Amino acid sequence: MKKGYINAIIWQSNATAFAIEDQSIIKVGSDQQIQEYLSPEDEMIDLKGQFVLPGFIDSHMHLLELGMYLSNVQLENCKSNNEVKNALLQGLSKLKKGEWLIGRGFLESSFDDQKMPTKEMLDTISDTTPIIIVRACGHVLVANSAALQAAGITKSVENTDGNIDFGSGLVEEIAMRKIYESAPKPTQEKLIQYFLTGAKYANQFGITTVGTDDFLSTYQDYTAVLKALESLAYRQALPVRINEQCEFNHPKEFSKFLDDGYTFDVGDDYFRIGPLKLISDGSLGARTAMLSNAYNDDISTKGKMLMDDETMETFIRLANQFNMPTIVHAIGDGALDHVLSIFKDIVIEGNPLHHGIVHCQIMRPDQIDQVVKQKLACYYQSIFIDHDAQVLEDRVGQTLANTSYPFHTLYQNTLVANGSDAPVEIPDVLKGIQCAVTRKSISSDSSMHASECLSVDEAISTFTTKAAEVLFMDHCIGQIKEGYYADIVVLDKDIRTMSPETIYQAKVKMTIMDGKVVYKDDTQA
């Protein structure tokens, strides 16, 4: 049976209606054309003037971690250490025997005293049940004594892989793996449930396709996660399309992956292998992103590199041999110097593989010029502006802040795709669009330089047409077009006609993926 949707405002189209059958959009036209095209046995839905767009594409997130985050203690709304403690106490009361108490999402910079939680505070909740809480950025955690003991950590350690402060329980960057490796491992069924939980949550924001980095989210062995994804894809059970951004601990592990027959584009339109993903530095919020000079608000550090140049180059050259793009997490301008130096000798003219940079935050003019010259793909997160506008200038100084987050310049001159980095941020596309358009924080009065604002249509395209191009899927998603997959989002309002400062208040009324309604909001406006 076919379905017709009439009386709609369709983005980038003069049409007002469309029809779908099975997985595809089969006709786009006027209300009358669609009504005449369908038979009396087909279903007709009146959208009553609502705004229709292609299903949103979140180009970079961590879907498995998002599902885990939603299944554990959520700390993003906590405004003090006391509120963190109360949330964890509630979580402890629901914990099953043998489980660890895990929370994520706190931002100490939003606390009144701006003090990090400590091991001592967590020990007052329990000194026998292991407890870890992860900062929103995912690059720092705090562990209680029981968790440190389970990981065999008995003293402070400082090295290039990430610091461990035994006294405070603070663990940074790659050193966090020592904690994660000691925690109980989720079963295959639990991994599948995490993926489904994250995907269904993403549907609420109109998302139908994700670029997602999951391989090292729960295990240091990627094979369990890969098996869960292949199981879901085989059953076509996921309500989002997955483009997996593949992360590995070591080039030898990546070599085995390639020897097993996996490389870029292996799979299908439900789950396919995407680019190799590398992480070169930490986060701006935790001051572990690698700057070329010391932090403006903490001259004792300039962050750190998490991967040496030789290893990074080995990874990228190996990927290149198998026609696999590489995307590199690089937040600080110091880290970006290393990445661009390696890309300069490897990426061929025109960048047909779409090698790229994830985040594109702290950038100097010379770096922006090189990214544009090489046509590097830029996976940025405009929703970061909500928080980072409040700290950017303090962190890096006015000069560097003025050229950072250059989203419009990149939009005009190279390949771009938008996303959320969930669960670092909630995958709220409308908030991402608003931040891209206004360059203003939603939760404060802070803002970034307005010269890098996108128009509403440009911001929408970073979550649709542009993102589909970056992911090599512009032949089948990203447009309301005959022959394309029926991946569609319906909003209650045309966000192009709203005040830019209110775009995030629009509501996702329906999300359709592969012709199926995967989310519907039945509440009345």
Number of helical regions = 19
Helical percentage: 25-40%
Residue share in β-strands: 15-25%
Q: Any idea what the shape is?
A: globular
Structural class by helix and strand composition:
alpha/beta
Taking the sheet with the most strands, its summary is: 8 strands, parallel
Descriptors:
single chain; 525 residues; alpha/beta; eight-stranded parallel sheet; seven-stranded mixed sheet; 31% helix
Give an overview in words.
Helix content is 31%, strand content 21%. It is built from 19 helices and 21 strands. The strands form three sheets. An eight-stranded parallel beta sheet has the order 5-12-13-14-15-16-17-18. The chain has a seven-stranded mixed beta sheet with strand order 3-2-1-4-19-20-21. The chain has a six-stranded mixed beta sheet with strand order 6-7-8-9-11-10, sandwiched between helices. A hairpin with a 4-residue loop joins strand 8 and strand 9. Helix 2 packs across helix 7, helix 7 packs across helix 8 and helix 10 runs parallel beside helix 11. The longest helix has 16 residues. It is globular.
